[in-house]
Amino acid sequence: MIRLSREGRSMMKSEISLTVNGTEHELAVEPRMLLVTALREELGYTGTNIGCDTARCGACTVRVDGKAIKSCMRFAVQADGSEIETVEGLSEDGGLSPLQENFKEHHGLQCGYCTPGMLMTADTFLEDANDPSREEIREAIEGNLCRCTGYHNIIDAIEDTANQVGDGR
């Protein structure tokens, strides 16, 4: 499909299919559209935040086909046919997941901007973690920046979740 941009240039759009939090979506995107932009602006999954646009902060972390990725570094067309989970997909039966509950209990958030990406990274890590040490937890979240909490409470929340659920989630 071709359309004219506001500047009068022709823009090609690609038809893609994404399954986000179990719901299938068909959309037309420009080849240069980032996955984070498609999730937020085209599909309304605004829990995924845009932080730095350089993959340094991790606020845009989502799970694509089971792997935590920074969605500011992937084009939406690269995710065509993928299963995507955003922070909105972590809730269980309308309530908080154990990890989300522990972030709340341990005050693992303050402004909350990094929290969606931190939760997605930690949740993915906990799927395969078997009794992780605090050092392993630190290493798992090292690609996610938080400028408010100093990480202590975040690590406590992840550690507590790992202890509650045993092997994996």
Write the layout of secondary structure elements.
Blueprint: E1 2-4, E2 10-12, E3 14-20, E4 23-29, H1 35-42, E5 61-64, E6 67-70, E7 83-85, H2 98-105, H3 115-128, H4 134-140, H5 152-165
Parallel strand pairs: 3-7
Antiparallel strand pairs: 1-2, 3-4, 5-6, 5-7
Percent helix range: 25-40%
How big a fraction of the residues is strand?
15-25%
CATH class of the largest domain equals: Alpha Beta
Instruction: Walk across the major sheet and give the strand order.
Output: 4-3-7-5-6
| Overall spatial form | elongated
Order of helices and strands: EEEEHEEEHHHH
**Oligomeric description of these chains:** single chain
What report would you give on this structure?
This protein has two domains: 88 residues, Beta-grasp domain (Ubiquitin-like (UB roll)); 75 residues, [2Fe-2S]-binding domain (DNA polymerase, domain 1), CATH 1.10.150. 30% of the residues lie in helices and 18% in strands. Strands 4-3-7-5-6 form a five-stranded mixed beta sheet, with helices on both faces. Strands 1-2 form a two-stranded antiparallel sheet. The protein is elongated and about 55 Å long. The relative contact order is 0.15.
Summarize the structure.
The chain is of the alpha+beta class and 169 residues long. The chain has two domains: 2-89, Beta-grasp domain (Ubiquitin-like (UB roll), Roll), CATH 3.10.20; 91-165, Orthogonal Bundle (DNA polymerase, domain 1), CATH 1.10.150. The protein is 30% helix and 18% strand.
